[in-house]
Amino acid sequence: MLLIVNADDLGTSSRVNDETFALMEAGIVTSATLIANAPGFAEAARRSRDYPQCSFGVHLNLSALRPIGPIEGLESILDDRGQLSQKLFQVAMPDRDLRAAMVRELETQVQCVLDSGVAVSHFDSHQHVHTIPQLFPVFKAVQRRFGVRKIRRTRNLLEAGRKPRGLRAVKKGAFSVAQRYIYASRCPDGFGDFRDFYDALQLGHMPRFRSLELMVHPGTSDRTYQEEIEQLRSGWPESLPKDVELRSYLSL
What we know:
Number of helices: 7
CATH superfamily: Glycoside hydrolase/deacetylase
Radius of gyration: 18 Å
Number of strands: 7
Order of helices and strands: EHEHEHEHHEHEHE
Structural class: alpha/beta
Largest sheet: 7 strands, parallel
CATH class: Alpha Beta
CATH topology: TIM Barrel
Strand content: 15-25%
Shape: globular
Number of domains: 1
Distance between the termini: 11 Å
């Protein structure tokens, strides 16, 4: 099994950058995704060059911070400070103008990452907005524009190593098929939170996929994520079966 540990939100702050790169140095985090419109982005992009063994993608963002590009067309998802906001989740079905503005903003974010010298390996998104069915055409347009074929799948690794069941599993399965075959893309077979994987590993319930991505959030002040850092530094890789390889998106 190929196991990828991806740090989300790289570039959010110097603290997030420091903790992410420290975990990469330790060989625990193998991949990260950068937020191009975040305050610490330039620093993160510069420091990423020191870790050629790791993959770096774009954490596409439509729900936080100020847009990089023009705001025309994005007004309905901006707050009163002109920042991208949670209003995105109130849009039942974006019209053509809003979709076009979203594509433009995301393309600007990706181009910003490329212009910084980062070789973009894959896409995921802030608050998983790339898995919202109504926004599927938006993200596929951005994939096509840059030829990025690797993308995070929907979550299918849950607490205690469980997988989705029933109607939820059917919906997730249908979306994953669309992700893979509409503008053909490569996704890990499994995706979930590192803490759920860690708990399952401690119980001896090793999730089995051909490839599995685990999401982590170094540098986040939330207490839950502080516990995650303690788990990440606990020596858990020593408990992995011999047929599990800790790699990056470069190996997918």
